[in-house]
Specification:
about 200 residues, alpha/beta
Length: about 200
């Protein structure tokens, strides 16, 4: 069976400024486009059977520039809904909420259409995506890989769930913009086979 290849989108203005970005649909910066294009060599030797992608423009553009054509758009792969913390940095949150931690404390409520999510709620979405991934891996002729192009916190939660951890276990996995990570198996157990790999730029 193939591996699960995780790709975080390239840089945006808000990711560069460390602002929480979920539903705000920002484009890649010029550097972000360069980052995404530089992923091509990291993926060239992989036989990717199917690509699932977040519906956000930054993820779709990253998939395109990385050479992953015709992705399946998966709404469950959108970023963690940060509620009232959309567009705000952790440093700014700590001014009024010292010691706050996304992974244990969740977010402040946001507008009605974006109320925010708990770690467990993001984990439920990740579990649904993993079911689709497992079906795609099983159907891939000759053991092709499945690629996921999405967002840092969502992919970190998905990794935790794949490894049998609670969603909050995603706190253990740093993930930079425009990097490639891989999840596979060893002795039929899920394992990380590569993490946060950036091409030489």
């Amino acid at each position: 069976m193939g591996e699960l290849i995780l790709i975080r989108h390239g840089e945006t203005e808000w990711s560069r400024a460390s602002k929480h970005t979920s539903w705000t649909d920002l484009p890649l910066t010029a550097r972000g486009e360069e980052q995404a294009s530089s992923l091509v060599p990291l993926l060239a030797d992989r036989r990717i059977a199917v690509t699932f992608c977040s519906p956000m423009a930054r993820a779709l553009r990253t998939a395109e520039l990385a050479g992953l054509g015709d992705p399946v758009i998966e709404p469950d792969m959108r970023e963690w809904d940060y509620g009232g913390y959309e567009g705000i940095t952790t440093e700014e949150i700590h001014r009024t909420r010292p010691g706050w931690d996304l992974w244990t404390d969740g977010v402040a409520p946001g507008p009605a259409e974006h109320p925010g999510e708990s770690p467990a709620q993001v984990g439920e979405r990740a579990d649904r995506v993993l079911k689709a991934v497992d079906a795609a891996l099983a159907e891939a002729a000759g053991g092709g890989d499945v690629a996921l192009v999405a967002h840092a916190h969502f992919l970190r939660v998905l990794t935790a769930r794949r490894l049998g951890l609670a969603a909050s276990g995603g706190a253990l996995f740093r993930l930079d913009t425009a990097t490639v990570s891989r999840l596979g198996t060893e002795h039929d157990r899920p394992v990380i086979t590569a993490w946060n790999v950036a091409p030489q730029r």
